[in-house]
Amino acid sequence: FIWGLEYIYDNLPQKKWYVIVDDDTYLVKSSLRLLLAHWDSNVPQYIGNAVGDFKGRFAHGGSAVVISHEAAKQLLSRRDVVAAAQEHSLDETWGDKLVATAFQKIGVYLDERYSHFFNGERPNISKMMADRFCSPLVSFHGVADPAEMKRIGRAFANERSPVFWGQLWEIYGAPSVEEFRRLPIRTGRDYVGRIDERAKMVHAVESAETCLKECEDMGKKCLAWAWVEHTLECKLSPWMILGERVEGHYSGINTGEVEKLHESC
């Protein structure tokens, strides 16, 4: 990443913004343009999807990293910092972390206020959460399959306006809130996906109906639920995903809370 930043700055020194992405990243350009129009390229800014722990936070390269002209100028004028970063890049696994370390040495830090615009997942497993439902969506990551990259390109080909997180549901033709009201339990689907510490797992749940009620009782803390038949586990998450077919799963969304989110946009 550090070599790439130097290359694009040297060859395109007049540009206001520089964007670093992985080769399996898809950029939603209309959303990115909206954000760039509100940011000042003359201010040293380093922006992206914040990852890492207390030892060091950095912008995830796969989610796209946005660097202002002034930030690039200040960094690349410090040849000592750049040379040290280039040397470390020879044995550093995380090139995106190395960029953050270099910027920290010149007093430019990751602005985490904008993390929710950037996304490190493929469309089907992107987590739509309340805190970003009405926010522009800039990127997808992990799209290693060329056929899937083409499908994403077709899905967003005609988008001239910014795309918001909550619009993913409509763009990909997922069931509407009204359709979920008519058929709240979907067989062979999972709208929760991979869980982490933000989700809740309830054991020994005897039915999908009981799992659905658990989610509804949690209010805004649960947007989607999934019941696993063979383990009797009930997954409850503060997000929902487009989902994929999973045998033995029964799943749905919290229609009341999702409807409120749509109305808030």
Brief description of this entry?
This protein is of the alpha+beta class. It contains ten helices and 14 strands. α4 packs antiparallel against α5.
Topology:
Elements: H1 2-11, E1 17-20, E2 26-27, H2 29-38, E3 46-48, E4 50-53, E5 56-59, E6 65-68, H3 69-76, H4 79-88, H5 95-105, E7 128-129, E8 139-140, H6 146-156, H7 168-171, H8 177-182, E9 186-190, E10 200-202, H9 208-217, E11 224-228, E12 233-237, E13 239-240, E14 244-253, H10 255-264
Antiparallel strand pairs: 1-6, 2-8, 3-6, 4-5, 7-13, 9-14, 10-12, 11-12, 11-14
Nearest-integer average pLDDT: 95
Shape: elongated
Question: Could you name the CATH topology of the largest domain?
Answer: Spore Coat Polysaccharide Biosynthesis Protein SpsA, Chain A
Q: How many helices does DSSP assign?
A: 10
What is the H-and-E element order?
Answer: HEEHEEEEHHHEEHHHEEHEEEEH
Count of domain modules: 2
Given this structure, which CATH class of the largest domain is correct?
Alpha Beta
Query: What's the CATH architecture of the largest domain?
Result: Alpha-Beta Complex
Percent range for helical residues? 25-40%
Point out poorly predicted stretches: none
GO molecular function: glycoprotein-N-acetylgalactosamine 3-beta-galactosyltransferase activity; nucleotide binding
Subcellular location: Membrane
GO cellular component, one term: membrane
Organism: Colletotrichum orchidophilum
